[in-house]
Amino acid sequence: MESKTPRFYELSISSRLEQLAREADLPLEDLLPLGGKPILTTETADHMIENAVGVYGMPLGIARNFLINGREVLVPMAIEEPSVVAGASFMAKLARAGGGFVATTTAPEMIGQLQLLDIADPAAAKASVLAHKQELLELAGKEHPTLSRFGGGPRDIEMREIHTSPIGPFLVMHLVYDVRDAMGANAINTALEVLAPRVAQISGGRVHLRILSNLADKRLARAECTIPLAVLGFGEYTPEAVRDGIIEAWAFAAADPYRAATHNKGIMNGVDAVILATGNDWRAVEAGAHAYAARDGRYTSLTTWGVTADGSLKGSLEMPMAVGIVGGATRSNPAAAAAIKLLKVASAAELAQVIASVGLAQNLAALRALATEGIQRGHMGLHARQVALAAGAAGDEVDRLAQQLVKENNIRSDRAVQILLEWRK
Prior knowledge:
This protein has helices spanning about 15-25, 30, 40-50, 85-95, 120-130, 135-140, 145-150, 185-205, 240-255, 255-275, 280-295, 330, 335-345, 350-370, 375-390, 395-410, 415-425, and strands at about 60-70, 70-80, 100-105, 110-115, 155-160, 170-180, 205-215, 220-225, 305, 315-320.
């Protein structure tokens, strides 16, 4: 009888790493940090944060089947929640039938804010600052010649009036800064510190806060995909029923902020997992995403789903994406550096496009499950393995116990412990 080639998830972890190296055409040594060799050491951790006492582990999986802008992409995801990696991988497989994901980004422009208080004449102060725009841009650009050499640097000065503040009206100056392949926080905060005294002098006011904004609405990532009707159906569900059910589920999130919060959380399951794996600031992207979802005064869905002229399902995602591939933990953490190598992204823009595509895939996975067999069926099967581990199962006991819990439809820790005790008598 001809032997069956094991699927990726059936391989051992060491064999998966070996296969990844072959698929990515990378030396195995480049990917070993993903498997914990070398790991982020306590010595390095002590230089990264204060009061370090160790390092914290997180499961790291590989989402497969992604075709993004015509390129095959193996996506590292660091996450503890079951079903996320599998869900994203399966939705990526469906998206391939429609040509995969098409993703774009806007320029990597971040916003730095200066809060101007004690302004006697706001209109005159605004006009004065804008009249000195070129001088301020040149002053800000001198602080980061490296960014300028790579085509980045300050791009614009904008002025805003805040009228709905508990302390009364005040002005805000925005410094728009192209940060290229960096996340950009340090560059912008440094530039703001340099500008503050001169802006105070020009405006006649008092500069208070000088800080980057995480609502990076000038630095957007967009992804879209089309799922042919033919691949949507399964089991008792017709393709049309699955398509329409997904759109109806999305419409709930588009209209209701209570549903939208959970809907967008599902998107961020995919987004955050890639951001964390690559050593980027997931908290910054989270903040920007949720603020962007409420940009019109009402919190709503970050995605849109609809029907194409030929009856296919089409989805899109647009959100701020402030990520980098240089500096910070992307270099100091060996696993993050290995993840960047595996992704084979040459710019922060390419990384943002991958992350947006994963977020869209994860949203599709959640909507499809909710609209058909329910979110719990697949999720709880994987959750049973975590319950088995927590109960003390080891080796082959883990899968065996998880299967038993699912069979009994009783995925509870006390039942898991009871079964283990019975087996071990």
